[in-house]
Amino acid sequence: MVKIVDHGTWIPREEDEGCHPAGAEPLWNESVYLDFTADDGSVAGYVRLGLYPNWNRAWYWACLVGRDRPTVLLADDHAPLPGPDLTVRGEGHRAAYRATHEVTVPMRSFRLTLDAAAVPVVDDPARAYDDPGGAETTLLGFDLEWTTVGGVYPYGFLPRYEIPCEVAGTIRAGGEEIAFSGHGERDHSWGERDWWQTSWLWSSGRLDDGTFFHGMRANAGVELPWPCFTVPPGGEVGHRAGFTASSVFGADGLPAGSRLLVPGLAMSAVPVAFAPVAMTSPDGRTARFPRALCRFETEDGRSGHGWTEWHQPPGWRGHAWG
């Protein structure tokens, strides 16, 4: 039996692994994230599928990065809404693609496949915010499975849960085929999400002793017990709260690094490779989303890799970042 943290508030059920009825809010969204990272940071990536039924579209993002690798990035914010089986087809940035997303065992395992042609190769991360017309392109393919490690962590104040995982399968990039084995996190959320209002930081990874960790905080103008967890080697996810973070940004808005504190675990996060995307609101405002593969260094001498995101809506530089 998979452990699910009991906050005494909202607890996810196996049926929550499926899709949910849309709310009335124009920006109601249902989101699935799937991260993966080799233990040594040599290769990593993520996929996000966001469903916007009241906006009549889906967002589909998929990327491959790594230490000493170029960023390969598919970002399609005008994909057709998929059916209940969550098979997505689209043409984003000249990349014809088909992707499947399947909960193979609720709360235990999830399989992703992607077959995409002519995906842009981005040499300069800042260019990923713009249309990379004329950029080099390549094939990109995933056949990966996420297997739960340690249990399921739900946020206590909104319908969202995070699952630390082992990840294994096959990656294709151009003529290269990679037998992948590493770690990652998957999450699932639903409800209204206004990407053009609030900035936030989200981070997850695994250290070299096998410890998983996760933390998230939003710059909401009020301090809350922001959600976080750790999973010790061979242990279970436990209820924690009180994640804090502070960040430094370059003139281009890309983060140079962050200090993260999960209670009892302090560390630095330094970007290794970026896969940024930009998104435009229905009324034309632009938000930027510099997500990055990071190397983590703890104060007690451990290290590891994972993903961090620093969401940047319009006016984000005026927000308090920790």
Automatic annotation (TrEMBL):
Alphabetized InterPro entries for the sequence? DUF7064 (IPR055492)
The ranges of region (Disordered) come to 303-322
Pfam families listed in its UniProt record: DUF7064 (PF23212)
Which residue ranges does the record assign to the DUF7064 domain? 195-314
Q: What is this protein called?
A: DUF7064 domain-containing protein
Question: From which source organism is this entry?
Answer: Streptosporangium becharense
Show the taxonomic lineage.
Bacteria, Bacillati, Actinomycetota, Actinomycetes, Streptosporangiales
